[in-house]
Amino acid sequence: MEIPSQILLIRLSSIGDILLTFPAIQALQHNHPETAIDFVIAREYQDVLTPVRHLLRNIIIYDKTKTGSETRRIRRIIREKRYPLIVDLHNNLRTRQLTLLQKGTVHRFQKHQLRRFCFVKWRWNVFNYPPVWRRYLSTIPLNLSDAAFHITEYKHKPAVISRLEADIPTPAEKRPVILIYPGARHFTKRWLPDYYQKLITLILEHTDYTIILGGSQAEAADNQRLAAIAPHRITDTSGKYTLSENFTLVSLCDLLISNDSAPMHIAALLGKPQIAIFGNTVRQFGFYPENPHAKIMEDNSVICRPCSHIGFEKCPKGHFNCMRNITPEQVFETLRHLLVGIVN
User: Fold this and answer.
1) From the CB of residue 113, how many other CB atoms can be counted at a distance below 10 Å?
2) Is 171 helix (H, G, I), strand (E, B) or coil?
3) Domain count across the chain
4) What stretches of 182-325 adopt beta strand conformation (E)?
5) Are 25 and 56 in contact (CB under 8 A)?
6) Coil, helix or strand for 181?
7) Domain of 10?
8) What is the pLDDT of residues 93-128, one digit of tens each?
């Protein structure tokens, strides 16, 4: 199609899904710098776009608490802007309402919900698609050649770096800084707290690495228990930094360990060495870290995986073997191999 003068991208939530739109934004700006890019996002997630804010003309904030009136307001903005191309990367009832009867051409992200359901319900592996970020790219009907997953144009603010460096000790002899995010939104995506405790103990006993704990304010109590293992070598930053500041925090560390959660995507976007621990989810869903420096820890012998593409508040089978079978010793050995180049 003809290159549009402006394009509207829509992805209201959640953190990981929004992060996976970054390659599309970067590719649009690189291949079609003359095209202005606007983005519709839910109010509580607007900070996620900070690393790519300089590539966007406008960010249109959607307040979910206002329901019908907010939908009418956003629809009016879209109508007045007369976007020739609208790309709905969320594709739910709310975003369909936002784009209803708009004059521009609308392209929607295909979720393949029926195939995903068959995969989860009966383990029929009919959901083996390219990673989600590539599917976002293919939803945009423009030539986006040379698109890559890694963010190459992000400029960290010096003031933010100075603030964060206070939490990252810099010893005279450089030692790796390991950033650990033990949390995740759903229980079945969280590696066991006792396993994180054992892993941290192994790191402390066998290395002189520095450990940083990250997470939200809601995860602070759990992180504080982990930090108490060795307060002089572990710094807890949970709830201390904004979403965009956590992006910078990941960039300053040498390796990240996390569950299948938003920090995993941040590390992958930055090309950082990382270990991602997968429980009830599987890489076929397309949310795995496409990063040459990433190691995914999962047990493919657990026949009830995947039990959900999102997660549950308890294991449906009661045994939670998808996480229990991944031992702290296995993760520690993977960590040592990943850090060989840094240590040496």
Assistant:
1) 11
2) coil
3) 2
4) 210-213, 234-236, 255-259, 274-277, 294-297
5) yes
6) strand
7) 6-139
8) 999 999 998 989 999 999 877 777 777 776 777 666
